[in-house]
């Protein structure tokens, strides 16, 4: 069974969707550990509630690779095979990328390569696009770049606010992240 590690900085609704999809048998995987760079992240509470080892590991904003060593040690200690970024708001550096080569994926609330970076939903809403969506992709050294694994569209409705649109995108994220992990587990991704 594929062992995944989840990195999250915030509320962790994507983590929760993965936990729920594993519990209901939709996803055949196990979460080895959850790590957050933010001591107050609700994601850590969700992990503890599901009896998943949960850690706060500071991620220093430095170009030095040392700050990722603790992450790597923790992920390896829990035999993690695939690292899933779920609202982890850091740019991954070469140290971690090389330790898990082609084994780090991310979810982003837009149809990449459109609207990378922060507040992607607001960027799309303000631009006036009629269709946006969510993307799961491999992580490389860029910000929200890397080969795309799965995307799904979300229509922008006339009466949408930024909040209602974000909520619908999040619902789609919760579906496609587990689908992408399943593709990886089933060795359907080259
Ligand atoms: C999600 O919308 C995720 O796509 C986004 O952060 C949110 C985390 O929500 N990630 C990015 O914007 C990465 N560039 P969650 O903590 O409830 O899963």
Number of domains: 1
Which percent range fits the helix content? 25-40%
Q: Uncertain regions: pLDDT < 50 for 5+ in a row?
A: none
Number of strands: 7
Attached small molecules: glycinamide ribonucleotide
Which structural class do you get from the secondary structure elements?
alpha/beta
Strand content: 15-25%
* CATH architecture grouping: 3-Layer(aba) Sandwich
CATH H-level homologous superfamily name: Formyl transferase, N-terminal domain
Mean of residue pLDDT values:
95
Major sheet size, sense and barrel closure = 7 strands, mixed
CATH topology heading: Rossmann fold
Ends apart, CA distance between termini: 19 Å
Task: Write up this protein.
There is one protein chain. By secondary structure, this protein is an alpha/beta fold. The chain contains six helices and seven strands. It has a seven-stranded mixed sheet with strand order 3-2-1-4-5-6-7, sandwiched between helices. Strand 4 (82-85), helix 4 and strand 5 (104-108) form a beta-alpha-beta unit. The radius of gyration is 16 Å and the shape is globular. Bound molecules: glycinamide ribonucleotide (GAR). Glycinamide ribonucleotide is lined by residues 8, 10-14, 86-87, 107-109, 120, 144, 170, 173. Glycinamide ribonucleotide binds next to helix 1, strand 5 and helix 6.
């Amino acid at each position: 069974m594929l062992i995944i590690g989840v990195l999250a900085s915030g509320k962790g609704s994507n983590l929760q969707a993965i936990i729920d999809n594993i519990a209901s048998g939709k996803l055949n995987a196990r979460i080895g550990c959850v790590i957050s760079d933010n001591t107050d992240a609700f994601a850590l509470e969700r992990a503890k509630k599901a009896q998943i080892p949960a850690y706060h590991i500071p991620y220093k904003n430095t170009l030095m690779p040392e700050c990722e060593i603790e992450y790597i040690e923790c992920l390896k200690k829990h035999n993690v095979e695939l690292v899933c970024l779920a609202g982890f708001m850091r740019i991954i550096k070469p140290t971690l990328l090389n330790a898990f080569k082609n084994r780090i994926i991310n979810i982003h609330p837009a149809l990449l390569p459109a609207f990378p970076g922060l507040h992607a939903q607001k960027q799309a809403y303000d631009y006036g696009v009629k269709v946006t969506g969510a993307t799961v992709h491999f992580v490389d050294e860029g910000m929200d770049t890397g080969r795309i694994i799965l995307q799904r569209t979300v229509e922008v409705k006339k009466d949408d606010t930024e909040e209602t649109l974000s909520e619908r995108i999040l619902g789609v994220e919760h579906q496609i992240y587990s689908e992408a992990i399943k593709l990886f587990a089933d060795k359907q991704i080259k």
